[in-house]
Specification:
- By secondary structure, the protein is of the alpha/beta class.
- It has helices at 28-31, 41-48, 69-82, 110-126, 150-155, 166-173, 176-199, 210-218, 264-281, 295-300; strands at residues 21-26, 54-59, 89-93, 134-138, 205-208.
- It has a five-stranded parallel β-sheet with strand order 2-1-3-4-5, with helices on both faces.
- Helix 2 packs across helix 9 and helix 4 (110-126) packs parallel to helix 7.
- It is elongated.
Length: 301
């Protein structure tokens, strides 16, 4: 069965009055990052670049990397036809929906996911309309599932003391909640692997490991250098925050709104790390280095 996805409307149109544009592309985590109440990276970038660049919201809630392909082509057409110059940079943050369990409508197999991400990046790197544009590919975050309550354990016929029992932990690990958690980790690792491939051949691409940054913060660890990949044996699976096991750590309040979407705390960490990456890798992107929109020149043209 082929799932037909309606084509989203573009309401945030590119304004050719701006010399500079920034494009944030992705799913709901990108789309909702522009809301003031979330203090997300879209909102933060708009505030920072006010008067210097137009920050475009190209996030579509519920979409996967596959469903976004046609939308991305429309975006590139818009850039070719309207942009005065190539965008300063793109962020691409997809994978949270792709990484759901096989058999679910939104599931995208990992090889197809990789192909989609590389397709986006390759087109940006090779199209004359985006010549020189930088690309930050961002991993999906983890999910935030609470530890099972005493009542949840009792439903399974267990007492609270059984929370550390190996058989009990194994039973929870076999459940769809933990399996989904680990799939998010797998897709995040793939993003960082892709980023590394590009970083070895161009200085226009960087990876941002949102999954690792949120997990490390919850565990009280000092955050690694921005853009650091996750090592295979870096974490004890049974204590991973938000994994929903009886012995799991938990995320701070405000990291998520519903266990899937970021809250102000989660967005705050993501925004801080994004700015850190942008200005350490490409200091020319600081606002003081950009010219303002030249409306008078545009009018004369």
């Amino acid at each position: 069965m082929v799932w037909i996805v309606p084509k989203p409307d573009i309401v945030d149109l590119l304004n050719p009055a701006f010399r500079n544009t920034i494009i944030l592309f992705g799913n709901s985590i990108t789309e909702w990052s522009f809301q003031e109440k979330t203090n997300g990276y879209g909102h933060q970038l708009e505030k920072y670049y006010m008067g210097k660049a137009q920050v475009l919201n190209r996030g579509v809630a519920g979409y996967t990397s596959t469903w976004l392909n046609e939308y991305f082509q429309d975006l590139m057409t818009e850039i070719r036809e309207k942009a005065r110059k190539p965008p300063l940079f793109f962020t691409i943050m997809v994978g949270a929906n792709d990484a759901c369990m096989p058999g679910m409508t939104q599931h995208v197999p990992l090889p197809e996911f990789e192909k989609n991400i590389k397709g986006y990046v390759d087109e940006i790197l090779t199209d004359p309309a985006t010549e020189g544009s930088r690309v930050v590919i961002i991993t999906c975050p983890p999910i935030g599932r609470p530890r099972p309550s005493r009542d949840a354990l009792r439903v399974r016929g267990l007492e609270a003391e059984a929370a550390t029992d190996e058989k009990v932990i194994r039973a929870f690990k076999e459940g769809p909640g933990f399996q989904t958690y680990m799939r998010k980790k797998q897709y995040a690792e793939k993003i960082m692997e892709i980023a590394k491939e590009y970083e070895e051949v161009t200085d226009r691409v960087a990876g941002l490991n949102c999954w690792k940054d949120l997990v490390d913060n919850a565990l009280g660890r000092k955050l690694s250098n921005v853009g650091t990949a996750t090592n295979a044996d870096e974490y004890d699976e049974e204590s991973l925050p938000g994994a929903g096991l009886p012995c799991s750590a938990e995320f701070e309040k405000g990291t998520f709104t519903d266990g899937l979407h970021l809250g102000s705390k989660g967005y705050g960490i993501l925004s801080e790390r994004l700015f850190e990456l942008l200005f350490s890798k490409w200091p020319e992107l600081r606002k003081e280095n950009l010219k303002v929109a030249d409306l008078e020149s545009l009018t004369r043209d």
